[in-house]
Amino acid sequence: MKACIFDLDGTLTNTLESMTYSVNQTLKEMGLSQITKDQCRLFVGNGARVLMEKSLRAAGDPEGLRIEEGMEIYGRIFDENCTYHVTPYDGIVEMLENLKKKNIRLAVLSNKPDQQTVKVVHEIFGDTLFDYAQGQKEGIRRKPEPDGVYAIMDNMHVKKEECLYVGDSEVDIATGRNADLKTVGVLWGFRDRTTLETAGAVNLIEKPEDLLQFV
Prior knowledge:
Helix content: 40-55%
Order of helices and strands: EEHHHHEHEHEHEHEHE
Strand order of the largest sheet: 5-4-1-6-7-8
Strand content: 15-25%
Distance between the termini: 5 Å
Number of strands: 8
């Protein structure tokens, strides 16, 4: 392997508190009820718009009639708070450093907005660990479509057989499959083993250091 592409939320960083906080501040400003962390955990993975659509339905707007208003407010609040209480999972930084020692190129591909993805990666991991970070942006279909994976592989000049994809959700398992990459699911994130196995996961790991066996 010459490269690893990682999902961000639930894979590298525990961002659940950050996203729950931003969603609830949005709902509060809209005069709607709050959601719980457990609800937010189930709502994330498909990008900000899907997160807000599901949150609005749970909070008292079952038809999602206020989605545009919600997206405008959420975009502002999340940009200000996207690193709120965000931390790497235990063992992540050490695992990334070990991959770098093996000359593995590292990238992040997230369904959260591109600006916030880059901001989180920069503020949490600095400028030396990752070669590339990309979030959801115009012109590139979001995961599980493989467009973002292909764009990153082109940027890093690696082939499919040289690249590993790593994530914590059923969206990530489908992304890796759609891109025809060897894919590893992680069990410390937002989904459980049953969910990932049902999605077709073959390679599952319980600790970050377990990833090293695949490179």
